[in-house]
Amino acid sequence: GKPWDLAAHPRLAKGKVVGVVVLDGWGEAPPDPFNCIHAADTPTLDALKKAAPERWRLIKAHGTAVGLPTDDDMGNSEVGHNALGAGQIYAQGAKLVDLALASGKIYEGEGFKYIRQSFENGTLHLIGLLSDGGVHSRFDQLQLLLKGASEHGAKRVRVHVLTDGRDVLDGSSIRFVEMLEEDLARLREKGVDARIASGGGRMYVTMDRYENDWQVVKRGWDAHVLGEAPHKFKNALEAVKKLREDPKANDQYLPPFVIVDESGKPVGPIQDGDAVVTFNFRADRMVMLAKALEYENFDKFDRVRFPKIRYAGMLQYDGELKLPSHYLVAPPEIERTSGEYLARNGVRTYACSETVKFGHVTFFWNGNRSGYFNPSLEKYEEIPSDIGIPFNDQPKMKALEIAQKARDAILSRKFDQVRVNIANGDMVGHTGDIEATIVGCKAADEAVKIILDAIEQVGGIFVLTADHGNAEDMAKRDKSGKPLRDKDGKVQTLTSHTLNPVPIAIGGPGLAPGVRFRTDLPNAGLANVAATVMNLHGFEAPDHYEPTLIEVVDK
Ligand code: 3PG
Ligand code: CO
Q1: Measured from the CA of 357, which atom of ligand 1 is nearest?
Q2: Ligand nearest to the CA of 357
Q3: Minimal-distance CA residue to ligand 1 atom 8
Q4: Are 485 and 91 in contact (CB under 8 A)?
Q5: Is 172 a catalytic residue?
Q6: Which of 163, 148, 85, 482 minimizes the C-alpha distance to 328?
Q7: How far apart are CA 339 and CA 337, in angstroms?
Q8: Each residue of 265-298: pLDDT tens digit?
Q9: Complex ipTM, two decimals?
Q10: 72-125: per-residue pLDDT in tens?
Q11: Relative to the CA of 80, which ligand 1 atom is closest?
């Protein structure tokens, strides 16, 4: 194969400490009352912006620039960190599933053939996020899969729905359930016994991540597999409508529910001999359920019953663990990431975030690979996130703690790269709480200041960027950019990510005086960052990487 040695950069020295800061959910948008970053006090980041265009610029973080199907797709942390770390643009899960469904290849693959063996006598269960957000799953893919599975022999289908409100507008769950019910009714007309069997809100049921809180997954297990939940309804539309009546309820946090028949019996628990598909393509929030469904030995919670099923993921969610072992579509094979190159060239790396973003700056950054490339050169540190407190009640999150860890790592001089993810813009932004998001953005700015001060002390270099937009726009807008209002005149809150570009800033005393952003890459995106960082470590980037953002001019 290709060699791993990186050539020395002709003008930039090796051995500088490079601080890489990813602000999660931090895009650039015009000043506006719904721009929380603008509204927040962010003196550190404001100062960096003044270095434009030489040392501050915008880069693309959505759509085809990060391997998503179209430029109408907002960015997200998975594809964002993949691009930042890999330096190359890979067709991502969303796109690969689209292609497999469009060509019909999905039904010829090993994964589908495996689950199909259960179609004769068993039920096909589909579990996943009911949404067209395109971050974890897509509604149209579920529709196609339902249709295709029934055409390929599934006679009894049960769908377990997780309501979104995070990648899409809160309240949209009702419309998605209605649309799904229409599809299931059409299947019933064709003689397929098809129903929704259980559900719940994605943040409270099933879709935890990075083992933050297994109780979330347990609630899902109880509802989807055991057919047990505190709330029982005759149909899912009634469930979602009723559960949303609580003034504090929202799609993200709906409690678990099961659908029961006239006699009160759950209509679709998972039984021996059934087939199960988790139809999310994104890994981070499905891998925990995948473990519960697949592992014979499992001690994270009491499963009570462990049905003998044929289980396939939409994708394989963890390539290292080969989990799940069966899947409908092969995931992107992200290879030759900057993390691996730098480790093979002796660069010592420290990476840190709090639990809810820890895998972003490690697993996603390294091309969906867990663990170290070289344990003697790398150290990854996770700060436990608070559990069970909504992020708008703790908008500062662990920003300060992450910054202190980064500062210590920088000052220790044991690392050449110190990489962190600061989560506030995203995690608080997703709550839709404007006041809290402003507080979170200020905390993120303060964290950045601590890190930049440490870089200053060691004569290092910093690279500050973001993975996608979120906190810079909290309003749903019409085409002209005007906030949309609901029937009571209230502006519709945008809890999701955005299509906005994100800033990138470079600086620090270690940055050679002639370094500046090139002007010939107006369409650059997140994938251009890896080559840039390699240069700052004193290396040329490999030829197949997206080009570096910087050049060195004589000063
Ligand atoms: C989530 O999983 O929290 C959201 O769907 C996407 O957020 P992220 O891409 O920023 O993690
Ligand atoms: Co997010």
Answers
A1: 11
A2: 1
A3: 77
A4: no
A5: no
A6: 148
A7: 5
A8: 999 999 999 999 999 999 999 999 999 999 999 9
A9: 0.99
A10: 999 999 999 999 999 999 999 999 999 999 999 999 999 999 999 999 999 999
A11: 9
Q: Facing residues of 420 across strands?
A: 21, 352
Tokens of 190: 């064709």
Name the pLDDT band for 251 (thresholds 50, 70, 90).
very high
Encoded amino acid at 207, one letter: M
Supply the pLDDT for residue 2.
Answer: 86
**Cβ(116) – ligand 1 distance below 6 Å:** no
Tokens of 445: 């700015």
DSSP 475: B
Exactly one of 77, 118, 198, 353 is catalytic; which is it? Answer: 77
Domains of the chain: 18-91+341-552 (3.40.720.10), 94-329 (3.40.1450.10)
Alpha-helical (H) ranges within 329-481 are: 338-344, 355-359, 399-412, 424-429, 434-458
Give residue-wise pLDDT tens across range 8-62.
999 999 999 999 999 999 999 999 999 999 999 999 999 999 999 999 999 999 9
284 Cα: distance to centroid of ligand 2 (angstroms): 12
Return the higher-pLDDT residue of 199 and 388: 199
> What pLDDT does 1 receive?
76
Please give the DSSP secondary-structure letter assigned to residue 212: S
pLDDT at residue 144 above 80? Answer: yes
Sequence length of the chain is: 555
Phi, psi of 22 (to 5 degrees): -110, 115
For ligand 2, the distance from its centroid to the CA atom of residue 430, given in whole angstroms, is: 7
Distance 76 CA to ligand 1 centre (A): 6
Interacting residues of 49 by C-beta distance below 8 A, sequence separation 6+: 56, 503, 505
Helix, strand or coil, per DSSP, at residue 529: helix
> Which backbone phi and psi does 482 adopt, to 5 degrees?
-80, 135
pLDDT of 555 reads 82
Alpha carbon of residue 320 to chain centroid: 19
Strand partners, 157: 124, 194
The answer to whether 205 and 229 have CB atoms below 8 angstroms apart is: no
CB-ligand 1 contact for 167 (6 Å cutoff)? yes
Nearest to 119 by CA among 274, 293, 232: 274
Confirm or reject: Cβ of 76 under 6 Å from ligand 1.
Answer: yes
Ramachandran angles phi, psi of 551, nearest 5°: -135, 165
What's the gap in Å between 432 CA and the centre of ligand 2? 12
The pLDDT assigned to 471 comes to 98
